[in-house]
Amino acid sequence: MIAYLDGVFLPLSDARVSVLDRGFVFGDGVYEVVPVYSRRPFRLDEHLRRLQHSLDGIRLANPHGVEVWRSIVGELIARQDFADQSVYLQVTRGVAPRDHAFPRGVAPTVFLYAQPLIPATAEQKAAGVCAITAPDPRWQHCDIKAISLLANVLMRQRAVDAGCAETVMLRDGLLTEGAASNIFVVKDGLLRTPAPSPHMLTGITYDVVLELAAAHGIPARVGDVTEAELRAADEVWMTSSTKEIMPVIQLDGVPVGGGVPGPLARQMDALYQQFKHAVMRA
Ligand code: PDD
């Protein structure tokens, strides 16, 4: 696997950063995960726009313009020996003696690498996954895709400990999102999901799902989803760049709807795959 670190492409195993990097010491940085299909990055410009939003959120100047980012990502993709990739891209505030306040005159650390993207199989999607719920323990800036992911790590591990795939989080009785995914619910044919807010990350997949719903006449409403509505849903899905659209068939041990993936999940997955392939061919 080939990585990119501060201007240099090199084998991932040779990439080194200082122990005083603020990413290591403070989790002071932001990131993106971009899916790549057949060496074509999916929605790269949207990922780069969200990166800008995250950098603005932590008051860190973007080290590169969009064109430079595109060329770094393009070259990274070309240098791998596998075609379907998950590109991880991280910018931290750089290396400086430990002090909470921002260092002056320090260059940010830019690190990217690609790993093979292994999408869920048809069988996995047909089976669905189970999820648990938990109170959302995170801060008020979840729209920043920060590398300080301790709460998300603990939430995901809680799901894994329960033999499940995801923890669905609730704040003040309202659905926020999963540990590393957005959450959609379906009730009586209406697709619902929380509106973008500082309490969640607006997923690139989330946007694609809502665009596809609008384009194909699937009724959708963006806004508060209460805990009671979540628990009464006919369908629950988790969405992310790496998991795409994954039906949740059991929540806290209780079957969701009929306890099998619902018809709208299947339809949306088909639309998503079509859309992906059309974009790849374009
Ligand atoms: N995470 N919410 C959170 C907290 C996430 O970490 C993610 C994705 C999403 C979905 O965003 P998108 O559709 O843009 O992937 C929502 C990535 C995949 C990760 O951290 O690995």
What is the level 1 CATH name of the largest domain? Alpha Beta
Q: Low-confidence parts lasting 5 or more residues at pLDDT below 50? A: none
Structural class: alpha+beta
Q: What characterizes the major β-sheet? A: 9 strands, mixed
* Continuous helix count: 8
- Number of distinct beta strands: 15
Task: Provide the β-strand percentage band.
Answer: 25-35%
Summarize the structure.
By secondary structure, this protein is α+β, with helices and mostly antiparallel strands.
Tags for this model:
binds N-(5'-phosphopyridoxyl)-D-alanine, D-amino Acid Aminotransferase, Chain A, domain 2, about 280 residues, 9-stranded mixed sheet, 6-stranded antiparallel sheet, alpha+beta, 2 domains
Notes on the structure:
The protein has 282 residues and is of the alpha+beta class. It has two domains: 2-116, D-amino Acid Aminotransferase, Chain A, domain 1; 122-281, D-amino Acid Aminotransferase, Chain A, domain 2 (Alpha-Beta Barrel). Helices cover 31% and strands 29% of the residues. It is built from eight helices and 15 strands. The protein has helices at 22-26, 44-57, 66-79, 122-127, 150-161, 204-215, 227-231, 263-281, and strands at residues 2-5, 8-11, 29-37, 40-41, 85-92, 109-116, 129-135, 166-171, 174-178, 182-187, 190-193, 220-222, 235-240, 244-251, 254-255. Strands 7, 8, 9, 10, 11, 12, 13, 14 and 15 form a nine-stranded mixed beta sheet that branches. The mean pLDDT is 97. The structure holds N-(5'-phosphopyridoxyl)-D-alanine (PDD). N-(5'-phosphopyridoxyl)-D-alanine binds at residues 33, 152, 177, 180-182, 201, 203-206, 239-242.
